[in-house]
Amino acid sequence: MLELSPFLDAIAQADAPLEGKANGWQRKAVLAEFGNACAFCCGPLDLSSPKSWTATTLVPAQLGGPTSVVDNWVPACRPCAASKGLRDIVCWKEWQASATPDRVALLLERRRSALLYAENHFTPLSRHSKRERLLANLSARFDKPRFRVYAWSGEVDGERVGLVGWSTRSGDALALSEALLALRMRDGGEVLAEGQVTLLRLPADGFLGAVWALIEAHGLVVELDVPSGGPLDVGDWRECWRHRVQDPVSNHKRVPMTGGPALPHAPRVLSTNPDSVRRLAQLQAAKRADRLEEAELRYREAMARKAKYLERVRRGLEAPMPLDEYRAWADEVRALGVTWARMVTQSRQDLNRPPAHTDAPYSGRSMTRT
Fold first, then answer.
1. Taken in order 87, 88, 94, 100, is the CA torsion positive or negative?
2. Coiled-coil stretches, from where to where (predicted)?
3. Fewer beta carbons within 10 Å, N or C terminal of the chain?
């Protein structure tokens, strides 16, 4: 039987408050940026009284907000700081409803800039993905409220077990409720404990998929410090959920912030988007046409050199080469012709074959390029 107390205790211990304080230069920097005014209500701050204002984070350290990044700090009057509390600013709907759209957009963009240098999980992209696509993947996560969950997988009494849990201080209540619903309905999770700490058991074969769904929902998934974790499947790139990075470059290179060698990328998966399928088919057709044109050119140039040689020999302008050497040369020319002919046949077959990743009918086109 699975003993829950080690996991519940580990969540309670890992969920201790992490909120830090802005240092002197960070406080001066944010005051200068916001003109000695509250970033939320825009009211002037009484700098003569340190207790009348504070520097607060847009994304709390408890949710992985970067306390060392000045963009994550803003000046706030005490009432605004108390109203915001330790929640992600994107969850503060009351302020967003009362503030001007420009002010909301300014602070949300500042939050996005800060999150680029927060603790972030790797992306499910292949090594061929460009940096712009990685940033787009991270940006899609940043649009959602950030929350903190804990996960563990290992063996208990010879049985593979996967657990996910969180506490009431783990972030936005709505985001956590949606996560709970998805884990139960989509991933087949079984609720083992509810209250101050929520703990679910997931099917062993669905654990990694569920963890990555939480990551894409902007969850910060932290591995629980509980013994008997068991061996990892080093061949599965999804096992890198345990690692995080603090800048986009390291994320792109798959270098964890704890150091060590780069971690494996996700395998390359071709898009099933109709536009992507069409562009891929066009690119492949253009490459086939280039290779076919190059093969034809090599064959015709070889035939022209051979014909020129035979004509010069016939006119007595050049001595005949040894018979064995001539036969070897003729075989090379013939091989170029065979290669070209095979490529022509293959191209005609490809034209009549529907493209991959789509059920749409495919109409053949001429290999002649315009």
1. positive
2. 285-312
3. C
Reading the block at residue 104, the tokens are: 């909301």
Q: Give me the phi and psi of 118, to 5 degrees please.
A: -90, 180
Q: Which helix (H) or strand (E) holds 54?
A: strand 53-57
Please report the DSSP string for 274-311 in residue order.
HHHHHHHHHHHHHHHHHHHHHHHHHHHHHHHHHHHHHH
Q: Write out the chain's pLDDT in tens, 370 residues.
A: 688 888 888 888 887 766 678 888 999 999 999 999 999 999 999 988 888 899 999 999 888 889 999 999 999 999 999 999 889 999 999 999 999 999 999 999 999 999 999 999 998 887 778 889 889 999 999 999 999 999 998 888 878 889 999 998 888 889 999 999 999 999 999 999 988 899 999 998 899 999 999 999 999 999 988 876 665 665 677 888 888 888 888 888 888 777 766 666 666 655 677 877 788 788 888 888 888 999 999 999 999 999 999 999 988 898 999 999 999 999 999 999 999 999 888 888 876 665 544 333 333 333 333 3
Q: Which pairing describes strands 197-202 and 159-167: parallel, antiparallel, or unpaired?
A: antiparallel
Phi, psi of 165 (to 5 degrees): -155, 170
Domain coordinates of the chain in residue numbers?
A: 18-116, 121-253, 274-351
Cα 35 from Cα 2, distance rounded (Å): 56
62: DSSP letter:
G
CATH hierarchy code of domain 18-116:
1.10.30
| Beta partners for residue 74, in sequence order | 56
CA distance 356 to 93: 45
* Token pair 């504070």 in the structure block, residue: 54
Find the helix or strand (DSSP H, E) in which 147 lies.
Answer: strand 147-156
Amino acid at 294: E
**Contact yes or no for 76/84 (Cβ under 8 A):** yes
Q: What's the CA gap between 257 and 119, in Å, rounded? A: 9
**For the chain, what is the largest distance between any 2 Cα atoms, rounded to a whole number of angstroms?**
108
Q: How many CB atoms lie within 10 A of CB 314?
A: 10
